[in-house]
Amino acid sequence: DLDGMKFNRVTGNYRCLPNSSINEIISSLLFTLSCESGLTCKTEKTQNIEVDAKLIKYSQETKRIDLSVSELATYFTTEVYRIYKNVENRYNGICFLLDEIDVLDEEVMIAPFLKSVIEKFRFDGFSNICFIVSGITGTITTLVSQHSSAQRLFEQLELSILTNDDLRSLMISSLDSVSTKIDPNVLNSIIDIANGFPQPVHLIGYHCFRIDTDSFIAKDDYLAAVQFVILNIKKQEFQVRVDKLGRGIGFDILKTLALSDSDFVDTQVVYAQLGNVDNSSFYGVIGNLNKDNYIEINSRQGLGFKDPLLKRYIRIINNYSGL
User: Fold this and answer.
1) Mind listing the pLDDT tens digit for each residue in 112-138?
2) What is the 8-class DSSP label of residue 229?
């Protein structure tokens, strides 16, 4: 509820990856804020983060900083003030989005940083700023585990997953607006991959449309789009997640699930296919894979991938046929 006020805030954003550091988050938030403000934004400049040298670079300037949370917060707020001062006559505030913070490594202390930043803005009387932090259910619990005040600083808004009908309507209405049709089987395949979330529909749908040449999205367009997304857009994220597992029981479980053409595999079937694995170790690893959002556990159907695109990535790197 904006109490009748028009939303006209300049934005900064960052989509977290499993190997993201606090320095990269700060750098990207400032860089995108600068770009959205219409200030100098040279995309050919790489973001060079040199932690050991205590340097953060987000544009053509280099700032020397202390890596303590309080100093990072002071540095960040100072830069935000500097950027906003140039555009405050055109906007009525700032909105930062941090997406998928649930994938951050545990040692990335995002909650203490956000607490320090928010309290610094409040102390300075700068109230027209907000942070939207998104992730899977339970994200607020992770923040609270890092800092108890997270529960007080953030209002939790839980969004329900979309129904298949919702996703179907989203896809068809978008394609209708550009006079494009889609094979019903392809549409169902995209909805299956989406697993109730809109982002895969947007991502795969866009690349299907981009690849299509005849205003009809067919199976070959879909397969090409999925492969492009996996090997170009999601590859780094997926490889980091695979590397984090190593080549132990966890990875063997994922390979077994990826080899199956079914969405779910009976738990005992997976256990039997692994061979000589201790029963307690097996169930312990399954619990960790579920906790870390690699797999989901269905009491009736067994084990399946949380992200169907990760399943297809593992099929590709292990030379399994078919997406």
Assistant:
1) 898 899 989 989 988 889 998 887 655
2) I
Of all residues in the chain, what percent carry a pLDDT higher than 90? 45
Chain centre distance of CA 195: 15
Q: Is 231 helix (H, G, I), strand (E, B) or coil?
A: helix
Question: What burial letters (b/e) apply to 38-72, b meaning 16+ CB within 10 Å?
Answer: eeeeeeeeeeebeeeeeebbbbeeeeeeeeebeeb
How far is Cα 157 from Cα 7, in angstroms, rounded to an integer?
19
Q: How far apart are the first and last CA of the chain?
A: 44
The DSSP line for 82-107 is HHHHTTTTT-S-EEEEEE-GGGS-TT
Cα distances (angstroms) measured from residue 315 to each of 70, 81, 103, 256: 45, 48, 22, 10
Using an 8 Å Cβ cutoff, are 294 and 241 in contact? yes
Mean pLDDT (whole number) for 9-29: 90
Whose tokens are 């555009």? That residue is 87
DSSP-derived pairing of the beta strands 62-64 and 94-99: unpaired
Model-level pTM greater than 0.90?
no
Give me the torsion for CA of 69, 74, 80, 83, rounded to 10°.
-130
| Mean pLDDT (whole number) for 79-103 | 89
Largest CA distance in the chain: 68
- Which phi and psi angles does 172 have, rounded to 5°? -65, -40
**Who has greater pLDDT, 41 or 104?**
104
Other beta carbons less than 10 A from residue 287's beta carbon: 11
Q: What is the 3-state secondary structure (H, E, C) of 122-157?
A: HHCCCCCEEEEECCCCCHHHHHHHHCCCHHHHCCCC
Long-range contacts of 157-165 (CB under 8 A, 24+ apart): 161/195, 161/196, 161/197, 162/194, 162/196, 162/197, 162/198, 163/196, 164/191
CA dist 317 to 27, 173, 255, 312, 322, Å?
Answer: 32, 35, 10, 9, 12
Whole-angstrom distance, CA of residue 243 vs CA of residue 228: 21
Q: How many CB atoms lie within 10 A of CB 269?
A: 13
